[in-house]
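Technical appendix A lists one of the benchmark inputs used to test multi-chain prediction within the project. The record comprises three sequence entries:
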Amino acid sequence: MKFIKSYLIPRIIQYLYMVVIGITLIFLIPRLSPVDPVEQILNTRLRIQSTTPEAILKIREVMEELYGLKGSLWEQYINMWKRLLKGDFGPSIVYYPAPVIVLIRNSLPWTIGLLTLTTLISWFMGLVLGTFLGYSKKSSLSRIWTAVFMAINPVPYYIFALTLLLLFCYVIPIFPLGGGFSVGQRVALTWSFIKDVIKHGTLPALSLIILGLSGWSLGTKILVQNLSEEDYVVYAQMMGLSDQKILYSYVLRNAMLPQITGLGLSLGGIFGGAMMTEILFTYPGIGTLAYNAVRANDYNVMIAISFFSIIAVATALLILDLLYPLIDPRIRYR
Amino acid sequence: MREIVTVENLKAYYFIRFMGNQTTVRAVNGVDFKVCEGEIYGIAGESGCGKSTLLKVLFGYTKPPLRLVDGSVIYDFDSQKLNITAVNHQLLRRVRWKYISYVPQGSMNVLNPVRKVRKIFMDVLAEHTDMSKEEAFYEVEKYFEALGLPLRVLDSFPHQLSGGMRQRVTIALATILKPKVILADEPTTALDVVVQRGVIQLLKDIHDEQKCTLIIVTHDMGVHAHLSSRICVMYAGKIVEEAPSNKMFKDPLHPYTKLLINSLPSLGDRRRREGIPGAPPSLSNLPPGCPFHPRCPSARSVCMEREPALVTVERDRRVACWMVEG
Amino acid sequence: MRKLMYSLSELWEDPKFKYSSIVLGLLIFISILSYFSPYDPYKWYLLPTNQPPSLRHILGTDGKGQDIFWVLSFSLRNSLMLAVVAAVVSRVIALLVGILSGYLGGAVDRLLMALTDTFIVMPVFPLLLLLSSLIKNYLTPPVLGLIVGVFSWSGDARVVRSMVLSLREREFMITSKFSGMTVKEVIVGDLIPYLLPIISGGFIGSMMGAIGFEVVLSILGFVRVETPTLGSMFHWMINFQAMLLGYWWWVLTPIVTAILLFTALYTLSLSVNEYLDPRTRVQRIVVVK
């Protein structure tokens, strides 16, 4: 009971206001910007056809309806919430009249599959490697790895990905140039389809894992370095405990706490997609969807993606908050 | 009585380079003493006089920037003699906890915050004995019962315990293997007076029960009065006086010892306690002559020029002061 | 001032700092040269296209008939300006929110922290995309910097707040208050010097973020790529298929510059952080063997 009142409820309130502020921002940004999205679309789409002024007016009305731009600002705001709560994001402009929600449903598995896997792999490997780097920081092996990661870490992702692409698609063509699966391959749960997906996903995954790994490793390394100077680690060494024991139960166990928060946030951030990756490797996920939406001023799609991103991150945070007392005994459900 | 620890001409310095300047901190600067089996040997002095460093060297824990420069620490256990300053890592690991153990400063955060107390004990047992998990489990409970510590502590995390209980737990942790020599570094610091008593009593009980040798470092002369059978007073990395506890409190010879004892409150005494004026000298930049002369109320000209040697004045008393020697 | 000179001379001992300041100095120098450029960066086909490096055009010319060196010079100027605007804006907001929140406490604190927490978890990238697609034609480098700045202050605002909270309890704040100083005087006189270290570290980080974001937007074509920036150099290089055509000078210039710039900023922040962090400060005490 006490747990619900003083731990759960404040966190749920926090969750709600995060979502509300975030969505309000999404609502306000297009409306505060000096550009009228409807005008913009009318200009670009209708330039080719000659249309009568009455027809334009008619189209404008329909568009305003579709975009939820009818009525006063307050009415629009209330209407937006009503629609969002029903899961209705309106139709896509580019793929009219396909509903936005269907487009998202089609792209989402690709993104989630790729990013969940790469995030988990790079996080786990980063934790292990970083612990090693931090704990035996004087060994030459650790020095070399640290130097390698320090060199990789600041390299912008697109340069890194482009290099991989050049190397493995042109110079040594062992991977397909891009796409989520081969053209002509039937989308079904068959072995050959799965093999095809893995083959296409390897290079984008590799690019994400290597960069992610270097980031997580360096982060963990610094954590571990600081932890190795903690009294309880020094004392465990004095007690004559084996290095393995100290590393595992004394250092790593403590280093994991902040890293789990980091993992949770990255997993929550997956929904935003990895646009650069998906574009460079023409991968059919949320990032590509967002890219095409931005290029075509498909606002309903962009708003839906932003909406889901905010929900995903806030939810990840909520789950973390609720799980954290289980991992860190110092934090109790007060 | 057999001498279990023999320290000879021990010198351990910190070599530090900071902002381009190289400094040598002479934390332990030529110390020798002997401790007999079963004794409680106290090391006193203000903070920054090298007591804790001395204890670390006694434990064989010299990590850079601390480096052993000279001297030896020889332990004489029943079967073998052991110079701890010159043994390899493997042997050191075997000797620690089983023969020599270490109780850290009470203010330190020495218990892993995410590990239950029982687990920490079982880590030690797993490392140093061939007990099975189950045996270790009960061994810890048995030991806690023997020490009169509540068993619920075993299933707590360190942050759930009070400061006094944490210190008791660390003492239990250091003594569970019944070591021959226990080195305790300021075990009562940062605890309030009532709790201090309990901790001192626990140390005393363990000492009486296990017949071990206890070397205790603390700046608190009150603790020494309760516990130590023999005391040495350190100043600026050196011993300035060594005597049995009762003699030292009744009739301190060195002016520094006098000041230390005078700063102690005693029952029924309403006078304001006076601290010792001034601060101990920087160990990287010692004054010439007797290092205590700038603060000494009875310094003479010879004190500023030459350093007095630690001389034996009675059978069991040594002191380093020009006034006493004369 | 003397303290600053001393800190700098001490930092200079650090090879990381030496490397990064030399590289950054060089890049800033190149960007300043743009004021003496013989060419207008917005005019195409002034020169023969796709010429390899020569004495006349030391980095060659690109497919738009522009001298790559001078394009680079303008690009660096714009990208650095954008980065500095973003960093200044985000620092100012972080300081303002953090100090107000920590110093005033109460309802103001709760409100500001609710906002901060929301911004911390806000998926900034989709929002920025939404925004930049709307106002693409207004997105000059300083405006982009401003937008990035507005979206990247939240983490440091929290750090500043907690610093203020702990400083507030310290004695000198109480003495300052008793001696009749106003809130403003206390903040300027006492707090800012303490907060300076945190700010400088975040400054570099937010510069890197802004430059990186601009490059991403440009490659995707979401900003006005006619304006010479580091990102637009990538954009044209990719668009003209310079890689496939083998114009290595055109391909390598933005890549090498970006790597130099990012590694320099990264090592600079590492070096400054190490210098300011008391924990590593102790580690810097070198052990003589």
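The mean pLDDT of chain A is 81. The radius of gyration of chain A is 25 Å. Comparable benchmark entries are summarised in Table A2.
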